[in-house]
Amino acid sequence: MTAQFTPAGTLTAEDLGAVHLIGVGGVGMLGVARLLLTRGIQVSGSDLREWPSLAGLRALGGTIYLSHEATNLDGVDTVVYSSAIPKDHLELVEARRRGLRVLHRSEALAAAMTGRRAIAVAGTHGKTTTTSMVTMVLQQAGVDPSFVIGGEISEVGSGAHHGTGEYFVVEADESDRSFLIYRPYVSIITNVEPDHLNTYGDYATLEAAFVEFARLTDPDGFIITCADDPGGRRLAATLRAEGRRVHTYGAAEDADLRLTEIVSSARGVRYLAAIDGRSLGEFRLPVPGRHMGLNSASAVLAAYLLELPLEAAEAALAVFPGVRRRFERKGVADGVLVYDEYAYHPTSMTLAMQTLREVAGDGRLIVVFQPYRLYRTRDSQAEIAEALAIADEVVLLEVFGPGELRQPGEGSAALIEAVALPAERKVFVDSWEDAPVEVVRRARSGDVVVTMGAPPISLMGDELLAALGARTADSAPTATVEPVATTPAIGQPVPGGSTAGGDGAALGGAAAPDGAAPTAG
Description:
This protein is of the alpha/beta class. The chain has 16 helices and 22 strands. The chain is globular, with a radius of gyration of 22 Å.
């Protein structure tokens, strides 16, 4: 149920007064804090760790406390929390005792969207990448949208900007039902698959929530979903039967925006697009993966329906840099290419592994995986194991499940047994420090290694590069570790177009999904 949340109404960001965010280092909270600060609102926040991104909030005038104290709320009008914050959190209890306005992150974000045409991107996976693509296309078209990227299961570091245009692009979180707060002008639903069943109980209830989300779309707006996804097709059929304006994209013959000649390689993905039989030309992305092409098609379709120039979509996608923790290239050491990938749901894992196979070519693929949440690992064990078996070698860490109690037979020890690889090609390590040792022992020049899964694993890529570089140093006069060049940030100019008027908000940082803050709360 959504009774604990207040649906979007007439409350604006300026009505919030001085705002304090509990767990401000959380991926979703960072974006909200940045957005409020760039709107000139007084912002403070508390966390238990000095995350690199907090320096940016201080530079914008935010006050950051590295402890949770009742005194942090002095002079505060509104306190914002995420679903990762327990109900008995010291600051949350104190805020209610003082009679302060207390809002869930999504409620504060909904207030910031008041008066704008919201473009909300939902779906089981692909939300962050799709939200980023839509934002870049709108920027390239010169409409300067506001945006907040990175949320619940979200997991990409916070990117946010207060734009001057009429549109507000937001990643909508289904994990705790908070996406039902928003009242979008455009709703984009990338796919609907089983996940977050700890919240919904069963898949039918989850599907019903996505239908409810789509029904909240402004009657003058429209809904976009993927014709290649069975859940998306069912959703489209239900909504069209109700007379709602639904548009689909995909390779399916009956898709409104149809993709043909989709080609993915290590250099990227390209495809031809047509709508109602009329060619829209070729679109290219510098990142590989058929699923990336599908995600980008939703941005192309949104631009077409909003009557924005498709040349802007073509130009923006051609330089799309990717998103941190989404097929992120960390570097090369001793001839081994290291990537980081956020996927933990079996479908997104499979897509990522298949794409990494393309990159590996004649080399081997080694995955270092940390599952996220015990219930998901237990309920989807067979599917996760099947995805992992795409790799040549598997190094498995224990499940990351803060606050969960492991029952006998649950966790990574059971998962590793289910992976259909010979015993010598898979290993469960029960300590963080053992993972780089296993990678150094197994990887050879020409291989691809990917760290994949729960938020902490994003920190391991640099350790792997260092360990592999040290291996080179031990066996050769010099060692080289290839750094990765900084990619363009959302809000920065792209070749062939105007400056999008950003505030420098980059997509980056360790991500925490399902609304989780990187802090212990």
